[in-house]
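Example 3.2
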Amino acid sequence: MMAALLAVASGFVLIGGWVWSERRDRLTRAFFLLCLAFAWFLAPLPRWPSDASGALYDAIYTAVGLYLPALFIHFFALFPESGQPRGRLRSATTIAYGVSTGLFGASFLIMLAQPLFAAPAAAAQSLIQGMAGLWFACGLLAALFLFSRSYRRARSTDARRRLRVALAGTMLGALPFAALVAMRNLFPGVAAPGERTAVILTLLVPASFAWATAVHRVFEFKVALRAGVAMVALAALGAVVYFTGEWLGAAWRQDLGSGVAGGALAFVALTAAVAGPASRWLRSIGERFVPDEAAATERLDADPAARRGAPGQLVEVACRVLCDAFHLDGCVALELVRGGMLRPAGRTGATTAPPPDTDFTASLPEGGGLVSLEELRLRAPDRRALERSGVAWLLPVGGTPRHCLMLGRRLGGSWFGVEDQRELRRFAGHLEVLLENARLRAEASTHGDRDRELSKAGAIQARLLPRRVPVFRSLDCAAAALSSEAVGGDYYDFVRSPGRIVHLAVGDAAGKGIPAALMGTWVHAGFRDRARRGAAPGELLTALNHDLVALNQPQAFVALLCARVDVPDAALTFANAGLTPPLLRRRDGRFEELSQSGVLLGVSPRARYEDVRVELDAGDVIVLYSDGLTEARRGEEEFGPDGVRRVLEAHARQGAAEILKALLAGVQGFTDQPLDDVTVVVLKQLTPPDRPRPHARQEELKFQTECAEDAR
């Protein structure tokens, strides 16, 4: 019986010490303390020569027995994670330690009072002993309930299969022992049936974890096996050196005494072997007897899809390799796109991608490397979103990551050793190189053809713009369109009609690049066709909107302003479909923002657009422009309508072409970021109008003075 108890206690000490040597965190600390407490509790009681030492040992033994249930609850409240318990689990852990502390405090006070009040102290001690037995049984039952809860919450069948043996062994080993301890404390003089069997069954607890470790690889057991091989090799070396020393002592120095020469020589040899050049030899012996599988980085290189695949295929392979190499229940690869948004790039296992608005990028470490979810400083909603997705670890790929690998829970050991973390850092760096190579290969195959096609498209689009602006004695015109890419969505056009009538349009298709350019081409054809028929601006916009809605193209919206300029009458009639409101500067310095507008083209089939007439006098300047002009930024500051006013105020006496150049130069000098597509049309009335003076007083138009963004 004593041998069985000592064997079980030694097994707990060995398992706890090995786990603690591999990684020191909350989970392994609780496990190590639990193993030490269980070993102390099970080990045979020593015989102490004095009463004081015996009393001290009794106090420690009592404390260990009372705190053992709390340690059980603490460990299984964490298992299989390593973070701080929260919510009900944290409350349960706090209550468990509180109960243990209260019982130990009462027992310690009774122990101090026993010499003075023997009879009451004995009765109180018996009561406390019974309560301690009940607490031990209840604590173990609560811990086993938490273990079964962790088993039920496992996210995959593979995780349950790996934990099933450990759960069954813990139940069969701990439940009879808990019942035995409770019975012994409640009824000290009664012999419980099957006592020896209950104690021996506790061996199922470490045995089940050992079985799950060796067969189902709940924990990485290779390190312990290699350490065992190295210890056997050292023991054999020590034995050889010991007997050699004994032989030398018996043959040459008999005065040294039996066992001294061999022991001293063996100690020196073993110390030199461990600390000196034999350390590598010992490690090689362990690796020879317990060969390791290929590291994650080598597995990634060995996969054909990773060597020549596209970036999306590469991250899929990376997720699969990590799950196989580190026994994760899932992995998700996220690509960090512009604006800090997240886009799933690959996935395997039970872990899912968090919502796109989850913000964790600012909390990632600058130097890269593996980081646990507990270490990140996150807002509560973001942390909950990651937890619901099953994310336990984050591995940024590269120093300024464009990808981030979201690692799920480890199937039994929720920690990574030092070697594991080093391998994961190496894996992330290697994956970054492979992704960059994949991008370069993809760009090399398509970049040249795409650039040539875009260059041709840009040239065609440029030819669609008017090569010359209309020229009149009384009206000065200037226009320009700047595109941020080879092709863009901004557009302007002039169509001349008999009687010195000019139809003009300024447009901005939603988006950038080729889709926006296609919409601009569609607007160009529709505008010129209806303008040649003499359609009024509002009528023209209504027809274009009806045609665009009929196309049934999602996200195909166009901001367009159409105007009819009557040059002899110096009058401009316009209708606006969501373009930035034109800005009118009168000769006397007053500014008017022509904010009358309707919705964007393509939004509603019932949209209607009203015509607004503006009469110009000599010296008046009107500027029509897209939002790329006013939305240019310098830091958080926008160029805005105020910037346009400042330029007009400074250059109002110059011609339309000079005003246009000043506007473009002003916005380019203002912004510290790449410009968006910008289109500007400047009209300046040079002479008084030829229109007759009406006898009746006309009611002047009232223009709102609200900002451009609100009007849109």
